[in-house]
Amino acid sequence: MSIPYWRLSSFYWFYFAALGAFIPYWGLYLKQAGFDTVQIGQLSALLVGCKIVAPNCLGWLADHTGKSLPLVRLASFLAALGFCGFLYAHNYSEYISATLVFSFFWSAALPQFEAATLAHLKTEAHRYSQIRLWGSVGFIAAVLGLGALIDWQPLTILPAIMIALLTGIGAAALIVPEARAISHDNQPLKLWRILKNPEVIAFFVVCMLLQTAHSPYYVFYSIVLKQHHYSSTIIGGLWALGVVAEIVLFIFMRRLLARCSLRALLLASISLAIVRWLLIAYLADSTVWLLAAQLLHAMTFGGTHIASIHLVHRYFGSQHQGKGQALYNSFSAGLGGMVGSYASGYYFDAIGATGIYTAAAFCCALALLIAYLWIGREGGNIFIVP
After folding, report:
1. What are the CA-CA distances from residue 153 to residues 27, 40, 236, 356 (Å)?
2. Do the beta carbons of residue 329 and residue 54 sit within 8 Å?
3. Domain 5-180+188-383 carries which CATH code?
4. Mean pLDDT of the chain
């Protein structure tokens, strides 16, 4: 069966368009709603904390039933329904309730769709970046469109836009056919044997640290730029620039991986993340240096994500792919995101943006050390994607 390229791509477009509408502007929306930085950090921590539990629930069901896409469709539509709760939320406790319901289902959908995409690609996993880049295109369309819109419209339009995009995710999932991955494992490893592998443990720790470092960017970057008197249009443009750089990397990723090991890609990406957070920490007043920092998004997010998706695909094989993608999501976006969001919100007023982004750079330095010592040192060419 041929690869349903455009149907797979449409899901990524809508999913990351929703992300592009949500991440850059949700902190501003909460601030306008009257919440302080501690509360914004706590709500963001709850949002990503659901990723610790939800993907694993769907991952277990998907691997045991062999039917990941019906679960993705259900979760996507329930996420849209859950976001409707923000239309009626007026106080902190009501925002907590809406956040938990929406985030549980939204965070559960993507890891299983990643597994479904890899199942469709079968032996052509190197084509993943060509499909995933359409998610980046959707992110840019949303972040630029909404950035221009809220310069002359109130931020109260954000929930309606999010509900429409979340509904689009579910609709896109409806047109994607189910696929079963080809298993080459005569005697597949038990999950616990994979999880006790020191390299796999190190990989998850690195993922957690990287996402902890990214959290201040996702939660407070737009707020920091507002404090430096950048307009919403410029803020949206800076977010979009990072994703444009990511798209360029995705376009050339197949050629890059033909010449570069996953270990080298991961180490280079983490090293550039250290540089990026230090630029934002100390040079946010300079538009030129902010542009440079955003161009580094190609590697700090795109490079680390592609390397991680391929590593999970190899570590967990076909039998445990759904659980493997879920665990990757749980440790990175879930646990790492929750710790980073809560800590950055709690300490933001005390140490400021400079202190927060310096701490993010330190997390990446620790991740770099662990990755250098443990990931891919004894594998030779198995860490080069064919």
Report:
1. 17, 22, 15, 31
2. no
3. 1.20.1250.20
4. 89
